[in-house]
Design goal:
The chain is an alpha/beta fold. About 60% of the residues lie in helices and about 10% in strands. The strands form two sheets. It has a five-stranded parallel β-sheet, with helices on both faces.
């Protein structure tokens, strides 16, 4: 069976729909959702109907329908099905993660994150589960309950593991682009950074990352080492000296550089005055911004 314009591979489908390849496979194997054609070698080829079905599944999930219930809805008669939108299922996921973390059950927390990240669109998880949960945890930790440092460390370790797993999966796919990702936050890496990192990975962007970069004067070495676009990320205010270093980097990378995260909101005027592409907000807001998507489209077309 030859691949045609009417059928595309799983990597291309993932890029079009925002649903990771591992999730598409999980939907097919576990829930009987999406049944693409296969090449003689067993590679999946998706039709336009398959892609429309994927988008319908995402729509159901975002309306609060459990993934285990979606197959039944898709096989219902063509007349529209009325579903009451509810955040209850998302809140249940938040609560389960929170309870598991607070009880310091590492052996349960890692599999729970694995299952979620495989079975659901990651952007939906960011908006409905991980970002709201992160805000709850930050509020909890501010009151410094007994063992809060252990909770923080376990949460950080679990997400470092998730990024490693996602990176290994991404390396099996042909990347649509490559880029540097420089994290300027000099404190412990925030969940928002890991979420942004994961969104890049799952979109097919291969990343070379540097966390907690103390000396931004060294950034030109990245350009000399490997000439590829660069994303500068931070959720905190930076000093005037560091802003000047970002401006110097802009002179080197030009349109191949963009600033993401809350730092872009905090220093919006400075970045605007120096014509640096930027967009502020949490991970999902930055990811879905027209500014970032246009930038990604530009670098992938090179």
């Amino acid at each position: 069976m030859m691949k045609s314009k009417e059928h595309i591979n799983i990597s291309e489908v993932s890029q079009q729909t925002g649903v990771a390849a591992v999730t598409l496979r999980a939907w097919e194997r576990r829930y009987g959702l999406i049944k693409p054609k296969r090449t003689p070698k067993g590679h999946r080829l998706y039709s336009n109907d398959n892609i429309e079905e994927i988008r319908q599944i995402v729509s159901w999930l975002n309306r609060g329908v459990a993934i285990s219930k979606v197959a039944e809805l898709l096989t219902t008669a063509e007349t529209p099905v009325q579903v009451n939108e509810s955040d209850e299922s998302w809140q249940q996921q938040q609560q389960e993660l929170s309870n598991t973390l607070i009880e310091l059950k590492q052996r349960s927390l890692n599999p729970l994150l694995d299952k979620l990240n495989k079975s659901m669109p990651f952007i939906s998880l960011c908006e409905k589960v991980y970002q709201p949960l992160s805000r709850q945890l930050m509020t909890r930790w501010q009151s410094e309950p007994l063992g809060h440092q252990l909770e923080k460390q376990l949460w950080r370790q679990c997400w470092q593991r998730q990024i490693t797993v996602m990176t290994l999966r991404a390396e099996k796919q042909k990347p649509i682009a490559n880029c540097w990702l420089v994290n300027l936050d000099n404190q412990h890496t925030t969940l928002d950074y890991w979420l942004f990192y994961a969104l890049l990975l799952q979109s097919g962007i291969q990343i070379n990352a540097f966390n907690q970069l103390d000396d931004m004067n060294s950034m030109p070495r990245l350009k000399k080492s490997l000439n590829q676009p660069i994303i500068i990320y931070s959720n905190n205010k930076i000093a005037t000296r560091e802003i000047n270093q970002v401006v110097k980097a802009k002179a080197i990378w030009r349109k191949d550089m963009i600033v993401m995260g809350r730092v872009a909101e905090i220093h919006h005027e400075a970045f605007s005055n120096t014509a640096i592409d930027h967009f502020g907000g949490d991970a999902s807001t930055c990811w879905q911004s027209a500014t970032l998507q246009a930038w990604i489209e530009r670098i992938r077309s090179k």
